[in-house]
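Both lines are retained for reference:
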Amino acid sequence: MSRFFSEKYAALTPYTPGEQPKGQTYIKLNTNESPFPPSARAQKLAAAEATRLELYSDPECRDLVSAAAEILGVGADEILFTNGSDEILNFAFMAFCDKEHPAVFPDITYGFYPVFAELNHIPYTQIPLNPDFTINVGDYIGVGKTVFIANPNAPTGIALPLSDIERIVRSNPDNVVVIDEAYVDFGAESAVGLTRKYDNLLVTQTFSKSRSLAGARLGFGIGSPSLIRDLNTIKYSTNPYNVNRMTMAAGIGALTDREYFAKNCRAIEETRAWTSDELRALGFTVLDSKANFVFAAHDRLPGKELYLKLKENGILVRHFDSAPLTNFNRISIGTTEQMQTLINTIKKILEDMP
C-alpha cells in the first residue's frame, strides 16, 4: 500500500474472489456461475438498451421493480435493486449495524461478511458451526445483534428450514435479521413471504446464479417499506445510478422468462444429485447441498492435492486453506458433460494414487 493509504483501513483483509483465469481454457467449477447463458429474452432486451447508454439509468429501477414486485408477490416499496447482492449486503451493514448493534454470523459462511464488518468498523461475533457444518439455530435465538445468515450457507450448501429462520427473526424483534438467499432457487425455502409478517427481516437475493447474470451484476433486497427506505438512504448517499441500463433490461428479461429459469434450476438440481452420488461412490463425504455446488472431501486425497491435480487437468474447483475446511473442495455444478468429465478425471486421479 502507498504512504497515503488511510490508517483506518490498514488492517483490512479484502475478500478473495475465485480464480478468473486468462490464457487457458478451463472447465470452471470454482465460482458458482451458471453453466447456462442468459435467456434469449434477457439478451435481446439488454442489446436494445445498449443504444441508449448516453443517458443515465433510472435510479428507481421502476420497470424492473414493477416486474419483480409482480413475480415475487411484494410491493414496489418493499424491494430495492443493487449492483449485485454484495452491494445490498454492504448497505445492510452500513444501515443496521454500529457499536450498539454489532453483527453476528457463522464462522464458516460467505467470506464477505467479516470484510464488510471490518470495512465499516462494526464489531462482530462469529459463531462456530456444529461439527457436521450445520448452523445451531439456538445460538441466534434472542442474540440481540444484527444477524446475517446465508441460507443455503456457503461454502457448505446446507440450508435451514423456513421454520428455523422464523424462530430467529421472531426472537430478535429489536434487531434486523438479514437472510442471504443467493442460492435459494436450487431447492431451499425462501423467507420472502415472511417479510410482511416481520418488519425486522431483510431477504437478499442475486441474479448471478439461477438467472445466469453473474457478469451483469444485479442483486436485490426485500423487506418492510421502512427497511427499504433506510437502505435507499445509503444508496442515494453513495451511488444513485448503481444499476446500469443494460443490466436493468437483462434483469427484466431474466425475471419474465420463467420457463427458462425453472428449466435451468431443475437441471442444476438433477445434475447436483447425480454428481453427489458419483462422488460418494468414489469414497467422498458430500454434504447435503441445496445450492448450485457441492462441498466434498476424501479421506485418502487431501483437498489441496485434489484441487491442484484437477487444475493440472484443466478443471477449476474452489479450495479453502483454513481449518476445518482444508480437506474439502467446493465444486460448482456445471453441465452434465462437464460434471461427467470431472468424475472421470477424479477416477483417474484416484487410480493413479500409490
